[in-house]
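TASK: fixed-backbone design
INPUT:
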């Protein structure tokens, strides 16, 4: 089976990922609380911001590509799904199966506050669902 991936959808989903993160971690939303719980040194964070953002662009592209890939497989397997439905469902189940357990392990093993886990896991839920909406809307 050949897997079709729309690279315009991948790029658009990566932009959504960065936009969601930018809003989610802004000081007006969860940024101050997240930085406090994570014990972020503001000066060091500003010094490394460009490198971190470049890394996030690369990671967002990888995540968007994988989501588009899984969406195609899901839409091919579940004949009664629309491509949009397959994208959103895939995004949700990838969050439940991969992101949430990894995020929760930070609290379980590293003694991170559960509030921090909720902030981070919530960001990834909204991010993946947003990416799924875009990938599904753009389609193949």
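OUTPUT:
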């Amino acid at each position: 089976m050949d897997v079709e991936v729309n690279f315009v959808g991948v790029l658009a989903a990566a932009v959504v990922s960065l936009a969601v993160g930018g809003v989610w971690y802004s000081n007006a939303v969860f940024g101050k609380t997240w930085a406090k719980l994570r014990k972020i040194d503001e000066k060091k964070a500003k010094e490394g911001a460009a490198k971190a953002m470049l890394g996030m662009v690369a990671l967002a592209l990888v995540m968007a590509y994988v989501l588009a890939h899984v969406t195609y497989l899901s839409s091919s397997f579940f004949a009664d799904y629309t491509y949009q439905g397959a994208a959103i469902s895939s995004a949700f189940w990838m969050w439940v199966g991969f992101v949430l357990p990894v995020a929760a392990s930070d609290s379980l093993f590293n003694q991170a506050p559960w509030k921090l886990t909720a902030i981070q896991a919530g960001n990834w839920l909204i991010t993946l669902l947003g990416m799924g909406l875009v990938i599904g809307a753009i389609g193949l």
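COMMENT: The radius of gyration is 16 Å.
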